[in-house]
Amino acid sequence: MKSSTRLPSLPQLFTALSLFIFLTFSFNTWLDLPVQLALFMGWFIMLLLGRWLGHDYASLEAAAIRSISNGLGAVLILIAVGALVGSWLAGGIVPAIIYYGLKLIHPSFFLVITLVICSLTSLATGTSWGAAATTGIAMMSIGCSLSIPLPLVAGAVLSGVYFGDKLSPLSDSVILAATMSEVEVVKHIRNMLPISLISYVITALLFTVVGYRYGGEVDLAQVNQVTQTLAALFHITPLAFLPVAIVLLLLMKQQPAFLVISLGALLGLVWAVLVQHSPLKGALHSLYHPRTIHTDLLLINKLLNQGGIESMLNSIIVIIFGLGLGGLLEKIGALTVISRLIERRVTHPGNLSLITLLVAFFWNLFGSAMYVSLILTPGIMKKHYDRLNIAREDLSRNAEFGGTLTCGMVPWSDNGIFMSQILGVSTLAYLPYMWLSFSCIAVTLITAYSGKFVHSTQQTTRLEQPLKGAECTELS
Fold first, then answer.
1. What pTM was estimated for this model as a whole?
2. Cα(331)–Cα(43) distance, rounded to whole angstroms?
3. How many CB atoms lie within 10 A of CB 280?
4. pLDDT value at position 145?
5. HSE-up of 224 (CA within 13 Å, CB side)?
C-alpha cells in the first residue's frame, strides 16, 4: 500500500489549489453563494488528487476526520461564544457597556482607545477570540453609535486583539508556535517584542490621526438618542460589568476557555432574569436564537438582534470543512512538495523570513485554520533555519507573525469566519484596516533584509535531527 503512493507533481498541486481558489473567489464575489459550498467542493478536488496519487479513500477520509477532531476545541468555543453574546444582550450587559462607553469615550480618540483596550484584554486573557467576543463587541457597538465606519473600528479591534494574543504567555498560538519550533515560550515572546512594539506604535499613530478626523463628524444627537433608547429598553446598571470582570479574570488565570465562556453565558442568563426581569423561557431562548427587538432606530435593532448558538452554525460548518481540507492537503504530501520547492530559494535571512511568512499565510489560505498554519509552517521551515544557522526563535517569531496576524484575512478560515461573525463586518471589508498586521509584516521584512533582529546560532545535534514534518508523511 505504502509503495503505491506518490507525491503530487507541482503542476498537479498547482492545478488543484488554483481550482479551489477560483471556486472560493467566484462563490464569494460573483455568484453570491455560501463559501461552505466551495469548501465542500474543495474536498472532492483533493480527494480526486489523492486517489490519483495512489491513496485509498479510507486513508484520505481518516486524515480529514483526524484534522477535524484536532480542531473541535475551536468549535466548542464558538458555540459558547454564541450563547454568551445572546445572553449578554438579553441580560443588558452589552447594552450597559455601550451606554457607559458612549457617555465616557471621546469620539476623537475612540479608535486608538479601542486598540489599547482590546490589546490589554487579549494580553491579559491570552485569547483573541475571547477579547473580540467581549470588549471587541462592545467597542464595535460604541463605534457604530458614534457613526464611525464599522470596517475601520473592526480594524482597530483586530489590531488590538492580535497584538495581545501573540505576546501573551497564556495564548495557545504563542505556546503552539514556540513548541513546534522547539523554543522556550519566554524566549519566543522576548524575540517578538522589538518588532511588535515598533509596529504597535505605527498602528497607534495611524488610528490616532484617522480617529481624530472622524471624531469631528460625530452626530451627538444620534448618540443621545441611542443612550436614551438603551435606557428605556434595559435597566442600565454598573453591575453589568461584574460578569465581564469574572470572565476576564478566569481567562487570565488560564482556566479552560470553553468553560469560562460558558460560565459567562450562564451569568448573562442570571442577569436577564434577575436584573432585566425577563421570563426564564425568554432568557433561555436567547442562548440559542438571536433576539428580535424592534425600535424606530435601525442602529439599535442591528446592535441588539444578534447572538445565540444558532448564529454560529454557518461558521461551524466552515471550520469543519476547512479543517478537513487541511488534513487532506497534509495527507497527499503537499508539505514535502512545498519544502522541496523553496529549498534552493532560501539563501539569505531576508528570503528566509519572506518565505516563512508566505508559507504561514499559505496554510491559512488552504488549511483554513491558524492552528494548521502554526503546526505545519515550523515543520516545513525548521531545516532551512538550521542550514543557515538562524536561531529557532526567529523561526517561531516569523511563523507566529505569518500565522497569527494573517489568519483573520482569509474569509473561509476559522478566524476570518469567527471575526466577521462576531464583529458584524465582512472579512474583505475590514481587511484594509488590519494595520498592525501589515505594519508588523513590513517591519519584519525590512529588518530581516537589513540584518536587524536576526539571531545566528551554531547547529547542535538536536537541530540536526531529521525533519519529520516535511519528510514525507505522504506514504503513511
1. 0.68
2. 12
3. 10
4. 76
5. 3
d(C-alpha 380, C-alpha 358), whole Å: 12
Q: Which residues pair with 390 in a beta bridge?
A: 456
Q: Tell me the CB-side half-sphere exposure of residue 370, using CA atoms within 13 A.
A: 31
d(CA 42, CA 49): 11
- Our separate counts of H helices and E strands in the chain read 24, 0
The rounded distance, in Å, linking the Cα atoms of 126 and 147 is 30
- For 104-153, what is each residue's pLDDT tens digit? 777 788 899 889 888 877 875 667 887 787 678 878 888 887 778 899 99
Q: Residue 276 gets which letter from DSSP?
A: S
Q: Cα(438)–Cα(441) distance, rounded to whole angstroms?
A: 5
pLDDT for residue 29: 63
**DSSP string spanning 315-365?**
HHHHHHHHHHHHHHHHHTTHHHHHHHHHHTT--SHHHHHHHHHHHHHHHHH
Measured in degrees and rounded to the nearest 5, phi and psi for residue 390 equal -100, 135
Is residue 207 within 8 Å of residue 112, measured between CB atoms? yes
Compute the distance between CA of residue 421 and CA of residue 411 in angstroms, rounded to an integer.
11
Band the pLDDT of 218: cuts 50, 70, 90: low
Give the whole-number percent of the chain exceeding pLDDT 90: 22
Give the CA distances from residue 432 to residues 56, 158, 239, 427, 440, in Å, rounded to whole numbers and listed in that order: 43, 11, 37, 9, 14
The single residue listed with the C-alpha cell 516563512 is 356
What sign for the dihedral angle of Cα 74, 80, 86, 92? negative
pLDDT above 50 for 35: yes
**Axis crossing angle, helix 435-450 with helix 185-215, rounded to the nearest 10:** 130
Q: Which cell is 65 given?
A: 476526520
